[in-house]
Write a structure and sequence with these properties.
The protein has helices at 10-62, 66-79, 102-115, 156-196, 210-257, 264-286, 298-311, 330-347, 378-381, 402-412; strands spanning 82-88, 120-123, 130-136, 140-147, 294-297, 316-320, 325-328, 351-358, 361-368, 416-421, 427-434. The strands form three sheets. It has a five-stranded mixed beta sheet with strand order 6-8-9-11-10. Strands 1-4-3-2 form a four-stranded antiparallel beta sheet. Strand 8 and strand 9 form a beta hairpin. The chain contains ten helices and eleven strands. The radius of gyration is 45 Å and the shape is rod-shaped. The protein is an alpha+beta fold. Among the domains are: 2-154, Beta-Lactamase, CATH 3.30.450; 292-434, Heat Shock Protein 90 (2-Layer Sandwich), CATH 3.30.565.10.
Length: 439
């Protein structure tokens, strides 16, 4: 349940780990301050004020002459700093004007109940700097106005503001350090993602905490091992290809010297097929080529594919979004699309090439009206050396690497290959590649 609301990023979770304890600590400190220290100080002040009000009320009731009462009012103002006023033939209000601080109301009620045996009323919200207390008499009421600092502890909000400010400052400093620590992890993730797309990440340097640097160095070592493995595989297949081409060349030479040999035409065809198979194996072994990435205009690429098809006596229909381009290894991308187009012409009469941008992805699709590939066999179709039944006849042969090469080239560019059903009735092969960032 809590996972649904928890932050998904490392930075967000780290902030939660830091901020939540600070917030809880601040809440506890504030609660302790207001319920212990602030209430105790307020109780002491309110008790003193309530005691003065009770004393002045008793003195007023004991004095009958007007001169004595005026003298009491003067002494209250000068000695006790309480403005005391007598309001004859009037009654106090029925409801108090209470503060929203329950602790203040509770303290005043307790202390005034103890100091007075008469009805009273107080107002803690009607004045900014004063608190008014009224005590009911038989012929009117006494009104007392006391400076607010004598009743309520006034330094509480300063403490809270200081606490919030200090917490905010420390939290901000912590966030800066956290962002720097998380940045090294995001750089490592970005480098790993770029390497997975076949990009050069030789400028990556581990940084951050010791554990993050260890992960960075492990990534560099892994990258070196993978590149070394790819180089060894390419060299091995290149050597095998070279060794096999030598006897093939001798056989072709013998056929050229004796063209009237029985079955010579069939042998030439078989030798040509063997050379094509070797080239397919070598292309698959190379995997990610070392070509530099450049801007590839897909409209120009579509024209080149159309011209190649025309030389073979076929027509390639093309529909490319105007101005569409991407950053890629041109020779590799061209090989992948040509592979799809060639496969389409092997099994179909109509082949269509389309390219369009969809959000953050550029989709390059090749459709045909051939027999297609059943959905349950599409996953196997892109595996290396996989040859479906449709290709196992005497007229159509292959190495079983065509779609595997296309898939590897798409992955090397950070994309993927999808096989779908085409609206033409046959197969739809889609190469989905990351679109370049719009400037």
């Amino acid at each position: 349940m809590l996972k649904r609301f928890a932050p998904k990023s490392l930075f967000g979770r780290t902030i939660l780990i830091v901020v939540l304890p600070i917030f809880l600590m601040q809440s506890i400190v504030t609660w302790v301050f207001f319920n212990r220290h602030w209430e105790e100080v307020t109780a002491t002040l309110a008790k003193s004020t309530a005691s003065d009000v009770g004393f002045l009320t008793e003195q007023w009731l004991e004095r009958d002459s007007q001169d004595e009462q005026v003298s009491l009012l003067t002494k209250a103002r000068e000695d006790l700093e309480i403005t005391m006023t007598y309001v004859p033939t009037a009654s106090i209000p029925e409801e108090d004007q209470r503060s929203f601080f329950n602790a203040l109301n509770r303290v005043l009620d307790r202390e005034l109940d103890w100091s007075l045996d008469r009805p009273y009323w107080y107002n803690t919200t009607g004045f900014d700097n004063e608190v008014e207390i009224r005590v009911q008499l038989d012929d009117g009421y006494l009104r007392y106005r006391v400076d607010r600092s004598r009743v309520v502890a006034r330094n509480g909000h300063f403490f809270v503001m200081w606490l919030i400010g200090a917490t905010g400052l420390l939290g901000y400093i912590a966030l800066i350090f956290l962002r720097n620590q998380v940045r090294s992890i995001t750089r490592l993730a970005a480098a790993a993602d770029a390497f997975g797309r076949g990009e050069d990440v030789s400028d990556f340097k581990p940084s951050g905490a010791r554990e993050v640097r260890q992960a960075g160095h492990a990534f560099i070592a892994m990258r070196a091992r993978i590149k070394r493995f790819l180089e060894q595989r390419t060299e091995m297949l290149a050597g095998v290809s070279h060794d096999l081409k030598t006897p093939l060349t001798r056989l072709k030479l013998h056929l050229a010297l004796d063209p009237d040999m029985p079955g010579a035409d069939k042998m030439k065809s078989d030798l040509g097929e063997m050379e094509r198979l070797l080239e397919d194996y070598l292309t698959f072994a190379r995997g990610e080529a070392e070509d530099l990435r450049e801007k590839v205009d897909l409209e120009v690429l579509a024209d080149e594919l159309g011209q190649n098809a025309a030389r073979l006596g076929r027509t390639l229909k093309a529909d490319v979004e105007p101005g569409l381009s991407l950053i890629a290894q041109k020779s590799q991308l061209s090989r992948a699309i040509s592979n799809l187009v060639t496969n389409g012409f092997k099994f179909a009469d109509e082949v269509r090439f389309t390219a369009a941008r969809k959000g953050e992805t550029i989709e390059i699709a090749v459709d045909d009206d051939g027999p297609g590939i059943p959905e349950e066999e599409r996953e196997a179709a892109v595996k290396a050396f996989s040859r479906l039944d449709i290709a196992r006849n005497s007229n159509i042969s292959g190495s079983g690497l065509g779609l595997a090469i296309v898939r590897d080239i798409a992955r090397a560019h950070g994309g993927a290959l999808r096989l779908e059903s085409s609206d033409l009735g046959g197969l739809r092969a889609v190469i989905a590649l990351p679109a370049p960032t719009k400037s």
